[in-house]
Design goal:
heterodimer; A: about 625 residues; alpha/beta; Pyruvate-ferredoxin Oxidoreductase, domain 3; Rossmann fold; 3 domains; seven-stranded mixed β-sheet; six-stranded mixed β-sheet; about 35% helix; globular; disordered N terminus; B: about 350 residues; 2 domains; binds iron/sulfur cluster
């Protein structure tokens, strides 16, 4: 079969294309169908083209749950826009469903009038049964009523396109059906194929047959769109024309941003980066990412368990490295005792908690914000620790640096909270000018004169960071009660109370170094929304929507959760009501009510899914009517 | 007449005489073990041999967990961490991964190292992290006031086993050999010379050096090691391992160990050494660990307990390899942070 021509944009009848300010597309299929890769490629192309993008992958905890079942579905949602967007979108307008289960699970999310592309070949009796259908929904007009449905024989057309590639088995050819679907999506949205063609060349460089097969399937999918007259119109999302800060951009996920942020922090501190961790979803990509960066003097240690991971990090910090561990809820629980030791030893280290649905094993691949109180208070004794949280995937870069900076400046362990949504979702990232990132000042005392292990800095109360190997400064530290300054073991009641208060005061003084809070919206009014962490995008979009409807609503997003910024109390007092949307049962709400004379209304959701914009908008409407 | 067998002298690596003395390693903290506790002797010998070896104090780090023995770092004028229960090997691993030039000692006990910290000890040894692990075995929990431990013998009556322990004990040196430790030795708190030599050998080993020290808890388990300390019986209950020498023991050196198939047996030998054929000859560096394991299984009272170095083999230390990989990467590639940030599809907004 002749290779179909690559896209030729001049041939496109743009008048026929439906211009859209934004569109949300969801790809869904078996976890072995390559949906993440398909979504990634579609997103990359759109980002490079100049759309704003935001993605949300949603995959099962099982690596390969039985094919064709609801449990085995893997989804990828992307929002493409011609202007600033903050989330991957509430509801898709286009659904690509690779099998009956994908249709069953996602159809109800689709906007009325939305476009459905189904792989007709996958609607076998067996697959229908696995998805819970008694008969094919494709033959049931009422089931699909109100949607524009396209039945595409993706599998057989892919096979036909690859018919003469004798070196590949049918199974290998079938794997290319995602390329066919992607080609069709490229046609439908008027996107060029070059980025993906180059990606195939690179990814499968050692397997030219696979490059050829994917290339051909992609082009065949595109050609199918062009030649079939089934689609009422193409859709086009123009490139952004709103005020986008100039510069070089790339796409980045939260986990990738944490990796780059940590490496950057180590370079800015002129330190070895030691990273000790134990594999856990959804934090493992941080370990994998850092393991590949040894050339930056990154030393990764895959420990035997979560406890060993925190132990190794304490040892590494004692020895003088910028030391980091990451985990998710269950692992963070196991690290509690070690974190307390670091608090008492007053050593700098960073614990990244990529929160996931809990309690217990919970929902490993889903998102939640329910570890806030546990990282603040889930250890024995009075155990103060700074806690910060990233608001967006790209911001994970800045917050990773911020975490390292606070840890070193204040000689303390610190929590950086992200979550499953931030970790895996992606957005455009304006690459920073590295020169503009402030160095992280590190001082290692070498002067034995007057040295004491717990001598404190006047401003921060930090103790000196002395490295083993330094002559004359030998000292012992441990978890027992101690005397300030000397660090000697002490069971004296006054010493104990003094140390507890001093450690608390040391953490409280982190607030002296925080930038003023930013309020988005009127600086006083009817309603203030306080958010933290990965709900930023949904809150921001909802607030802007309500503002456009004339409501007196503002929002303020907290990056620093302990200590809280000093100006928060004043800001809270300037609004008649305060709403705190959280993906938990009201943890920040509780903290705010304990700390400030405010009554807080919570919007709480614990479904393993991020907020939808409309959920917040409707809560705003409830409150303000 | 000599009524004891002199433990063999194991020569440390030759070097310049050290300018340090034991006092240099004594910290200003008051030692707070019970009077008569075996820990005192171990502390004193450790301070002595470190001074003799001449490793600078600032290059030495002691890391411990929780338990009586784990107070050890406070008493050493070196760098030290008194960490949390069972986790000392994990901290030691982090320290060595960052600074492989430091000499790191882990001080642990039978409860700390084999119960709550069993997992970490196991993985530290299999990785061959370059640390010296000194396990004080007194077969009881001292600091928590006398409960049975993972090395307590079956039937041992303690406050938590009023009818006698029904736990089957671990044998620390068998565990170490099974966990692929590259250096495994046993000695005793009061066996001063032997203790010194064993610590010296451990100090000289690159990789995990595991040393079990029979240590007397005079308060909660004072008779645990009578069979290896009582001068009237100890020589019949200990076989000193010497490289290249036959396994001979007994007050009159009149008994030996022969290996019959895979099983050791005690035989009478001629103290003149004439009829010693068939006796096992000690080899600590055998690639295969079966022989060392067999030795470790010799239990009182059927057999004499092996004292000395059961196994000493060369295998690259994990922490050295970790640092090597990093160094190779640094040497062979350009660490350009800006290029790293750009290492993805990028686009420019004017
Ligand atoms: S309780 Fe036993 S092991 Fe602990 S200090 Fe006293 S004698 Fe030594």
């Amino acid at each position: 079969m002749a290779e179909p021509p690559a896209s030729d944009s001049s041939a496109i009848n743009t008048e026929m294309a439906r211009l859209m300010d934004s569109v949300v597309v969801r790809f869904s299929g078996d976890s072995g169908d390559g949906m993440q890769l398909t979504g990634d490629q579609f997103t990359n192309t759109s980002a490079v083209l100049g759309n704003d993008i935001s993605t949300f992958p949603d995959f099962p905890a099982e690596i390969r749950a039985p094919a064709g079942t609801l449990a085995g579905l893997s989804g990828f949602q992307v929002n493409l826009a011609a202007s600033d967007i903050y989330t991957a979108g509430d509801a898709p307008q286009v659904l690509v469903a690779m099998n009956p289960a994908a249709l069953a699970a996602n159809l109800s999310d689709l906007e009325p009038g939305g476009v459905v592309i189904v792989n007709e070949d996958a609607f076998t009796r067996n697959n229908l049964r696995k998805a819970g259908f008694e008969s094919s929904p494709l033959d049931d007009e009422s089931y699909l009523q109100g949607y524009e449905v396209h039945r595409v024989p993706l599998t057989s057309m892919t096979r036909a396109a690859l018919d003469d590639l004798d070196e590949l088995s049918n199974q290998q050819k079938d794997l290319c059906k995602n390329a066919f679907a992607l080609g069709l999506a490229f046609w439908l949205f008027d996107r060029p194929m070059e980025t993906t063609l180059a990606f195939y060349q690179e990814k499968f460089a050692k397997r030219p047959q696979v490059v050829k097969a994917n290339t051909r399937a992609l082009k065949a999918g595109y050609a199918y769109g062009e030649t079939t007259e089934a689609f009422q119109s193409r859709m086009s999302v123009p490139t952004r024309t709103d005020d986008v800060p100039p510069g070089t951009y790339r796409r980045i996920t939260g986990n990738e941003a944490v990796v780059l942020g940590l490496v950057t922090a180590a370079q800015k501190a002129n330190k070895t980066l030691f990273y000790g961790s134990y594999p856990i979803t959804p934090a493992s990509p941080i370990l994998e990412g850092l393991a590949a960066l040894k050339r930056f003097d990154v030393r990764t240690f895959q420990a035997e368990d979560e406890i060993a991971a925190i132990g190794s990090v304490i040892g590494a910090s004692f020895a003088g490295a910028l030391s980091v561990t990451a985990s998710s809820g269950p692992g963070v629980s196991l690290k509690s005792e070690g974190i307390n030791l670091a608090i008492v030893m007053e050593l700098p280290l960073v614990v990244v908690d990529v929160q996931r649905g809990g309690p217990s094993t919970g929902l490993p691949t889903k998102t939640e914000q329910a570890d806030l109180l546990s990282v603040l208070y889930g250890r024995n004794g009075e155990s103060p620790i700074p806690v910060i949280a990233a608001a967006t995937a790209a911001e994970c870069f800045d917050m990773a640096i911020e975490a390292c900076r606070i840890a070193i400046r204040h000689m303390t362990p610190i929590f950086l909270l992200t979550d499953g949504y931030l970790a895996n979702s992606s957005e455009p990232w304006l690459l920073p000018d590295l020169e503009l990132i402030e160095p992280i000042e590190v001082e290692h005392r070498t002067d034995p004169n007057g040295y004491q292990p717990y001598l404190r800095d006047e401003a921060t109360l930090a103790r000196p960071w002395v490295l083993p190997g330094t002559p004359g400064l030998e000292h012992r530290v441990g978890g027992l009660g101690k005397q300030d300054v000397t660090g000697n073991v002490s069971y004296d009641p006054q010493d104990n109370e003094h140390m507890i208060k001093t450690r608390a005061e040391k953490v409280a003084r982190v607030a002296d170094y925080l930038p003023p809070l930013e309020v988005n919206g009127p600086d006083q009014g009817d309603l203030l929304i306080i958010g933290w962490g990965g709900t930023y995008g949904a809150i921001r979009a909802a607030v802007e929507h309500s503002q456009s409807e004339g409501r007196s609503v503002a929002s303020c997003h907290l990056r620093h959760l302990n200590p809280l910024p000093k100006d928060l109390g004043k800001i809270l007092s300037r609004y008649r009501q305060v709403l705190v949307p959280e993906l938990n049962m009201g943890q920040l709400s509780m903290l705010l009510q304990a700390r400030y004379p405010v009554r807080v209304v919570g919007l709480n959701k614990v479904q393993g899914q991020p907020f939808r914009i409309r959920e917040i908008v409707s809560k705003i409407n409830d409150i303000l009517t | 007449m000599t009524d004891t067998v002199e433990p063999p002298v194991i020569k440390p690596p030759a070097g310049e005489p050290s300018p340090l003395t034991r006092k240099d390693f004594v910290s200003d903290q008051e030692v707070r073990w019970c009077p008569g506790c075996g820990d005192y002797a171990i502390l004193a010998q450790m301070q002595k041999i470190l001074a003799e070896i001449g490793v600078p104090r600032e290059q030495t780090v002691f890391v411990s967990g929780i338990g009586c023995s784990s107070r050890f770092p406070y008493y050493m004028d070196t760098y030290g961490i008194h960490s949390i229960h069972g986790r000392a090997p994990t901290l030691a691993t982090g320290i060595k991964a960052v600074n492989p030039d430091l000499t790191v000692w882990v001080i642990t006990g039978d409860g700390d190292g084999l119960s709550i910290g069993g997992n970490h000890l196991l993985h530290c040894m299999r990785r061959n992290v370059d640390v010296k692990v000194i396990l004080f075995n007194n077969r009881v929990y001292g600091l928590t006031k006398g409960q049975y431990s993972p090395t307590s013998l079956p039937g041992h009556r303690t406050k938590s086993t009023p009818m006698g322990s029904i736990d089957y004990p671990l044998n620390p040196i068998s565990v170490a050999i099974g966990a692929e430790a590259t250096f495994v030795a046993r000695t005793q708190d009061t066996n001063t010379k032997h203790l010194q030599e064993t610590l010296r050998r451990a100090a000289a080993h690159r990789g995990t050096a595991f040393v079990e020290i029979f240590q007397n808890c005079v308060v909660y388990n004072p008779t645990a090691w009578d069979h290896t300390t009582d001068s009237s019986v100890r020589d019949d209950n200990i076989v000193y391992l010497e490289e290249g020498k036959p396994l001979v023991f007994g007050r009159d050196s009149d008994k030996g160990i022969r290996v019959n198939g895979m099983i050791p047996e005690v035989i009478d030998v001629d103290s003149n050494g004439a009829a010693n054929e068939g006796l096992a000859v000690h080899q600590e560096s055998l690639d295969n660990s079966s022989y060392a394991y067999m030795l470790s299984r010799m239990q009182h009272p059927e057999f004499p307990l092996p004292f000395g170095v059961l196994r000493c083999v060369d295998r690259p230390a994990y922490t050295d390899m970790l640092v090597d990989q990093v160094q190779q990467s640094i040497d062979s590639s350009d660490a350009d942070l800006n290029a790293l940030l750009h290492s993805s599809d990028t686009w420019v907004v004017e």
